[in-house]
Batch of 3 targets.
Target 1
Amino acid sequence: MTTSPPETAPAIGPDAAFRQHLEAGRFMLQHCADCGTWVFQPRILCPACGSARLEWQSASGRGRVHSRAVLKQRPEKGGDHAVVLVDLAEGVRMMSRLPDTAPEAIAIGLPVRARILTQESGPVVVFDPDPEPEA
Amino acid sequence: MSTGLSGKAAIVGVGTAGCGEAPGFSAMELQALAVQAALQDAGLQLADVDGLFCANMSHIFPTLSTIEYLGLRPRWIDGTNVGGSSFVHHALSATMALHSGLCDVALICYGANNRSAQGRMVPPAEQPLYEAPHRPRYPMVAYALATSAHMARFGTTREQLAEVAVAARAWARLNPEAFERGPLSIDDVLASRMVMDPLTVRDCCLLTDGAGAVVMTRADRARDMPRPPVFFLGGGSAAYSRAISEMPDLTTSAAVDSGARAYAMAGMGPGEMDVLQLYDAFTINVILFLEDLGFCPKGEGGAFVQDGRLAPGGALPVNTNGGGLSCVHPGMYGVFTLIEATRQLRGEAGARQVPGAATALCHGNGGTLSHQATAILGTSTML
Ligand SMILES: [Zn+2]
């Protein structure tokens, strides 16, 4: 007897789907149709309720810096490198960075807006300070 | 619910080797030297070992390589690898295996030559998929993020973090085996090189060579061993995630659960612990674990460690060997918490001995604040 994937199985895995969306210029997040939880990293099953009904929806792209760390490096080694955790309005958290913002200007709580940056490893979600943050 | 495990097994031998710098030795060689020392301490032979518990980052199958290298024929093998906390977790799993008769002599061991062989902390090959593109420097980035969050949320200061490093150094100065034994002040820590803001080099653990081994038997047999047995009173293990970006709350670790499980098994609470060995990969670890293990309320860890409370002569002796910050940190440190606790409970810690110590709490941290394991040990008077 062969086992076939359940009907809810997506055509491609959520990791590849996330990347395909980014390549098409869309920052999408999974949303659980059963419990309403937003999910990141992309998954097959909702980590809150176990449902396989995770549906792609456009991310707001709005968030705030939850924490930050700055690797101190000499300029010839690439200079200081800030890594952040961003809490998106949807309630998910992701590691990222603010490529065009000086590390010392990146404070916890800073409102940020997402954009897609294509780098050597592929497209990634990065952030800029939000010029028009929501209250 | 009682597991029936409290007091059923004991540590009967401990040994270390190559702590600090051991050029010319491989990880397996250092581990074998520590095993030899621990077995000698226990009055046992390699042939007596029939349960093996180990983990490392240098071998893909740590237990199999260790079995082959030492010529073991264990009846029970546990290679659970949850990071540097593995060995504290192994103490619980060894107690289970001993109590159920799966083995009679359990060996927990670790060895690494990080300092001599590589000269830097080498992270495991596979890193979190959605973090790696942002070029995070592991493991430091995770602890810097947790430190920043704790500072922003609770007002924890760099001076308070420095207190942790200074206390560790003060203990290390009393321990001939410690790697860093020079004087260290709060000002020294604050003035030291900023490596990953907000962490200076003195907020970060050492990178040394070193190996450690622990031998356990059932409690009844332990009473006939040459050294005073150190009984396993309670243990717990917990994890919610691996990557720092997936940690539910950067300021609260799974030690909340591992600690509660260990206290419940031991039938004890934080107020009954005489000496603590907390995995101090970074200064923030100690503050987080003191909070999560119930020694002070959440958010008050910074104030709690002030004025030398953790240092020699302070109210709460923490990391009496000098910890990973000043004694030894060969990539994974967990086994050394068990070894130092055993030495303290046997009363053989020399100049750093905590007078009358009868209980000890060992806490292991694995990954990047990912896995937490707690073990409570005690002398025969605590049974
Ligand atoms: Zn769900």
Target 2
Amino acid sequence: MYEFVTGPLAIFAFVVFFVGVIWRAIWYIRGLNWQMDRVAYGQNVVYGLKGAIRSIVRWLIPFGTHGWRFYPGFTILVFTFHVCLLVTPVFLLGHNLLLEERWGFRLPSLPEAVADVMTLAVMVAAVFILLRRIALPEVRILTKTYDIVLILIAVAPFLTGFIAYHQLGDYKFWLIAHILCGEIMLVAIPLTKLSHFILFFLSRAQLGMDFGTKRGGMKSSGLPW
Amino acid sequence: MPEGILCNKKPVDTVDQLQALLADKSGKQYYEEMKQLDVNGDALWATLQKTLKSRLRTWLEICAHCGMCADSCFFYLANGRDPEQVPSYKIQSTLGELVRRKGQVDNAFMHYVMDTAWSKCTCCNRCAMYCPFGIDMGVMFGYVRGLCFSQGFVPWELKIGSGMHRIYRAQMDVTTEDWVETCGWMCEEYEEDWPGLEFPVDKPNADIIYTVNAREVKHYPEDLAEAAILFHLAGENWTVPSEGWEETSLAMFAGDWEGCKKQVESVYAAMDRLKPKRMVVTECGHAYRATVIEGPFWAGLKSGRTPVESFHYVEWVAEALRTGKLKIDPSKRIKEPVTYQDSCNYIRNAGLRSCAREIMSYIAEDFREMAPCGEHNFCCGGGGGLNGIGRYREARNVGLKVKRDQILATGAKLVVSPCHNCWDAIRDMEEIYHIGIRWSFLKPLLLKMVVVPEHLRPEE
Ligand code: SF4
Ligand code: SF4
Ligand code: SF4
């Protein structure tokens, strides 16, 4: 079982992930239409790029925009969740040892205690994000089962990994569960709305270009996001 | 009765159709017929498949349902934080549903979509600034309006408005003769006070071609005269076109893209015909948005720019003050506290915030910003055509509360509002809420304080 989930299944998951993400990006860019979107892509490229980059970078900085500043608590949750979620698996010692064993290369690793705290942070942030969903009427009305399922998909690899690492149960079982959950998440990224992994950048770039060229960017110093 | 006599899927293209609609007071029969109107689900689905491309589809799909757009929408705030006014909810329950049901929806659903698209969103685009994914509900509801229009589900006034543009190339039944006559009449009326005043129509190769809002022609001709006088004082070489003078677009508010195209093409044709150096648009926000910002795309101009460079009135005023073409008498500047209504259409969506500030620095001694202001300003409450729709009067009036409180908080009693729609909304606000404010376009204010050069003064 272990061989299978770390072998063929892992390769399958990674292929779906990479191909899917690239396909999403190509699909997005090909579907842009200057006349229907009413944005002159390819014209005033410098303004367009400037607008796109500003639009992305500002939103990647915690408290970098009016929106983030307006909801400080949620902003902390969102950044904690996303940063820890993206950084921990890539720089985890265990993952890198495996990587070296299988592919002969590795990335730098986080100290184990730090990775542990970050894993906990993902889970704690997720709990608060879920609570917020239920507690606030303006978020509750938007919430679908799908939203909850996606959070669970995203958190599951962390929960199972945490249990396995600390040997809180049957190590073998939790390790395989962890690997499976990780693979489910990888596959889910291009196939579900977790595709915002890539579409966040494209969507932000598009609106940034819109504001950067047509909607004022050429007559002002740029939209103050 | 699937297709009504007044309410149907056909746009208004003849004077007879228009007259019949106008004769139906407040659209009574029109809305009755709408209750029976069939929905062509297949056509809707075909349109969705053809036009709902990656940008809109992605917005619908990746919306995180996080609610960060909630507080950005003045309707949400004005309606006691009603969750049904959260921008994401509004779009998911309309366009989102339409897509999920592949266009197979019924009459009642289309009524809901129409009511939402026009009475719960003014397409002010403020929420786009607050969504982490940059999801712009203003753009999306503009799109939804187009779908509604194609199915005949459009508020009565806007069906009429779009018809006006299709027939008269103006938002009101103002003909070329009416327009040219009004120009002449205004010139005669004022030339005694302003010797040498001109109202040049169709003058080729002028520096400025000036275009207006049909309301000015029909209801506020002094506005035209004021524009002429200010150009005269500034020594501009300007003209107006006899055809293609109307900048506004109720067709845009209606979602009638074909009508939009016809309207802006008439203006662009005037530019091509008269070859001016640049165009200046009167003090109207949506007019500028329609003809200068969005229009090139309707007309298929790949550059995304109008045939000659175009400027909003505030840009011209700021420039005239900066270069000294217009000089303000310092003793006549506005002394009382005064605030400025940032129009979504030319501030948030066209980047002219600093022009407005520059003007205020010349004309006001105690300028007070609203909070928030500039690009982040709230819609006045009457945008997107909402001001003019009887069916949604109540919803509009509730929406005005946010702007009312913003104005009150500045302590100013005078609101400068170089946008027809905002101006109307603020006027109605005073009528409804009696907060003791006054409001004004820039032209009359400028005329009161501008220095008149010696040689342009009337002989004593
Ligand atoms: S802020 Fe954006 S992502 Fe969040 S609910 Fe609103 S539209 Fe959706
Ligand atoms: S565009 Fe304006 S009115 Fe419409 S949902 Fe967004 S904030 Fe509200
Ligand atoms: S009426 Fe004025 S404030 Fe309201 S949407 Fe239009 S431009 Fe914006």
Target 3
Amino acid sequence: MICDECKKRPANVHLTKIINGHKTEMHLCEECARAKGELDFFGAPEFSFHNLLAGLIHPEPMGIGMTMPSPYRTPRKCETCGLDYTDFTQSGFLGCSNCYADFHQQLEPLLRRIHGSTRHVGKVPGRTSGTLKIRKDIESLRAELQKCIAREEYEKAAEIRDRIHELEGKLNESA
Amino acid sequence: MRRVEGGKDLTARNYRVVRSMSLKDIIEKTLSAWMKDGGPEADVVLSTRIRVARNLNNVPFPHVASDADLKGVVDAVRDAVKRSPTLASLQVLDLAEVSPLDRQILVEKHLVSPQHIGQVKNRAVILRKDEVVSIMINEEDHIRIQTIFPGFQPEKAWELCNEVDDGLERGLDYAFDEKIGYLTACPTNVGTGLRASVMMHLPALAVTNQVGRVLSTVSHLGIAVRGLYGEGTESSGNIYQLSNQVTLGRTEEDILENIKGVARQIIDQERGARSYLMRETRRQLEDRVYRAYGILANARMITSEEALRLLSDVRLGIDTGLIPGIDRKIFNELMVLTRPAYLQKLMGRELSPPERDVERASFIRERIKEG
Ligand SMILES: [Zn+2]
Ligand SMILES: [Zn+2]
């Protein structure tokens, strides 16, 4: 048997992965297996779930049926780190935590395929629990405040400032 | 390797010099806690490992982060560790300052992944002295906390992992989203970021050709199984690792319950298969395990693949009571100690593959004689 990867050397490492009844087999030479980080099972602390991702990331349908001019065009790039969504479909890695927000629309069906769910129900960081949302709100209000000031909408700015103070008060209470 | 624990840095020089010291003592000093003690259900379960993936807010994930970003992560985590009353005693190892051989040993001891030592600049690992806790910094995610216990101890492993996570979190701003949880570089880890893995020795299921059936059954339950070094569902050494596939939409407790339930079933089936073999084919089994013992006790050259296969048979002999007088933990120990880097560390020099086979054989002979 010849190595699946280099198609040159004989395959002497055989890997089987079974996920939800779906079996994939890989036959690799020692060199390629090592390169893939699969050989040393003492070394590979965990099953490489990442490799499964490729089969789950479906490229967006292109040119099938009508292309609707949609006002909700899905963003192609993360505003924070600049990662292109197609980079993700190739590498399986997102660029930053904000990618989850910017690629929300594309990621949701993917998360459903991987996990059967899109909603976290587990642990919440102790330090941020409860206050997380408040802090996020303050952040966006501050951004809005700057815009108002730039536009010289002082009345509205004052309103926003009051709301920020109110939220900050809440934050201090729960701290 | 920068190591604080004096006794731990067991270079070959020590090995040769303290040759009067028994091999057992030396091994005692070099192995992580999980390899020494059997733990619950040790006849089938070798180890239980929990890891959680965490990232810092507003810092790109390691694979695209700049050197400055990566260094910032290492510094921030180092700082959080120092300031935490529960974590302050942990030791931070800068991977760039660790020799290549010692890095490989970290991999062989399961303390870091092979990927983690692929690139060492601004990469670090944080270890508890007994090596039950290890934290990889700037691997696939900024932070990966791992706890590893001997035998079947998912609750204990999670409890400790959770505690370390709490300790770190006090000094760090984690990337967390209320809707989808802890944010990770790869969406297969998002949510809890939790991966629970149970490493099992399943020789009787393998001999009775039931591994495939058992494993494909459990794979319907959101559990992934990997068996290595073998065709199809075979694995020399008969070692299989179960891991949860799903990390989002379930609580940590649910994830643990699920993998515990599945592991329990497999433990029962493996034990059932062992008693079946003892009842129906005792002679053949006895012959098989003693042949393996005979080779390990006498071979002059042995590859790690063959060693693993025979060690599996001997271990089955020990667990079924067919081979009395040998401690079963010998199996866990030798699996790690006969890996290439560890072997070279013990011998104190680089070894070509044939030399390794010679040293491995002699090392196993000696260890088996000590019992
Ligand atoms: Zn190859
Ligand atoms: Zn991004």
